[in-house]
Write a structure and sequence with these properties.
The chain is built from 15 helices and 17 strands. By secondary structure, it is α/β, with parallel strands linked by helices.
């Protein structure tokens, strides 16, 4: 049977992994796809690298746009990244009637609505399993495996860099800066780690999963995003004493007034499986009304794990090439005409429990003043640690866990607490997620 010809845009880490795995497992992949899948042409600005990786076993070009219009290419794989030329290339491929496979979460989170609409008009598919959680097949699980369910919420550790940093801070007691330096030394963090440590990368991925889970359009611009760069190692220590781990979570939840879409550090009970995901690994917890809670775990990045997802998409596209567009799996799980515009809830309206750390002067009546303010805002305390000041110290830490309350209540209470003369500095506040 005629092979599927692939045009590969970008032969970096993931592109090289895709070429290697596709060649190594060619026979097995062909048996699953029903025909051979081969990379016919590679486009990269570094032709020397492309020649070294491919060994001259396919055509090479420095002009990626030539690939999008190449009549011999059936599927275009975009592995360039970013939202600039990658967007133009994807839209050009769609316009020429090419199916597209991409690992570009930033592109889809920011421009997915436009891209999927263009693909729908041309009757082609945009596949993107590799855009979220590397080799974990979470997109397929949400879009196909859990089709019978009304998804209630998703909570995920979906950035390996930040999970590695938090693991180092907990295991070795390192401050954030030292843990980040170690992540950079080992190659887990970029020289400029902003997208990772400030939660932006996780928010891109969460936006995609949220759209699939709830049949919503992409709403990255409405997401609430907090990173881990301001986390203090003392909070990780106190959380541990209370039976919790701190993880950077991406959370999206169906609510009566809309959808929660938020990325931030959160306390999770150490008894939860997801709290024990360490190092650079990823995990996604999905709660459906019929199936209950399901957990997906694995490597969220790397050449071959991500290549695994890219090639799975290639096989899916190869299988459905003969199917008419109306009978293909929809891009966002729901039929295009059923996509809705659910509002994203402002972070002030979410309901959560909270961890509070207060640095206070060691005086009588301090705790009474604090609890009185919390009570005024209908906030009750579930647990508390009061660290006694050391010899010669005049200040101490008070750590509190609250019961559930609306975020705006806790914000208003913190403003009043910080105005107390016995409070030193700012109150540290982290959300606590039960994940039930």
């Amino acid at each position: 049977m005629k092979p599927i010809n692939v045009g590969l845009l970008g032969i970096g880490t993931v592109g090289g992994g895709t070429f290697t795995v596709l060649e190594r497992n060619a026979d097995e992949i062909a048996r699953r796809a029903g025909r051979p899948i081969r990379i016919d042409v590679v486009a990269d600005t570094n032709l020397d690298l492309a020649k070294k990786v491919t060994g001259g076993r396919c055509r090479l070009t420095g002009d990626a746009f030539a690939v999008t219009g190449d009549p011999n290419v059936d599927i275009v794989v975009e592995l360039i990244g970013g939202c600039g030329v990658a967007k133009d290339l994807v839209l050009a491929a769609i316009d020429r009637g090419k199916h597209v496979v991409t690992a570009n979460k930033a592109l889809l989170a920011n421009h997915g609505n436009e891209i999927f609409a263009a693909a729908q008009r041309r009757g082609v598919t945009v596949a993107f399993e590799a855009a979220v959680a590397g080799g974990i097949p979470i997109i397929k699980a949400l879009r196909e495996g859990l089709t019978a369910n009304r998804i209630e919420w998703i909570a995920g550790i979906i950035n390996g860099t930040t999970n590695f940093i938090l693991s180092e801070m907990r295991d070795k007691g390192l401050p954030f800066a030292a843990a980040l330096a170690e992540a950079q030394r080992l190659g887990y963090a970029e020289a400029d780690p902003t997208f990772d440590v400030e939660g932006i990368d996780a928010a891109h991925k969460l936006t995609i999963m949220s759209a699939i889970a709830f049949g919503n359009s992409m709403k990255f611009g409405d997401a609430h995003i907090e990173g881990i760069s301001r986390l203090d190692s003392s909070d990780i220590k106190y959380a541990e004493q209370l039976g919790y781990r701190i993880k950077l979570l991406g959370i999206t939840r169906r609510a009566a007034q809309g959808v929660e879409l938020r990325v931030h550090p959160a306390l999770i009970s150490a008894r939860r499986l997801i709290a024990n995901v360490e190092g650079a690994m990823n995990a996604v917890l999905v709660k459906g009304d019929a199936v209950g809670a399901t957990l997906y775990y694995g490597k969220g990045a790397g050449a071959e794990p991500t290549a695994s997802a890219v090639i799975a998409d290639l096989v899916d596209v190869a299988r459905m090439l003969t199917a008419d567009p109306e009978h293909r799996v929809p891009h966002l799980a729901f039929q295009p005409e059923a996509i809705v515009e659910l509002p994203i809830l402002p972070i002030s309206e979410i309901v959560s429990s909270y961890y509070l750390r207060l640095r206070v002067e060691d005086r009588p009546g301090v705790l009474a003043d604090i609890t009185r303010i919390l009570a005024d805002h209908q906030i009750s305390i579930e647990a508390m640690i009061q660290r006694e000041p050391g010899e010669g110290e005049e200040q101490a830490d008070i750590i509190m866990l609250t019961h559930q309350t609306r975020e705006k209540n806790i914000d208003e209470a913190i403003v009043r607490i910080e105005q107390l003369p016995v409070i030193t500095g700012r109150v540290t506040r982290l959300r606590l997620e039960g994940l039930l």
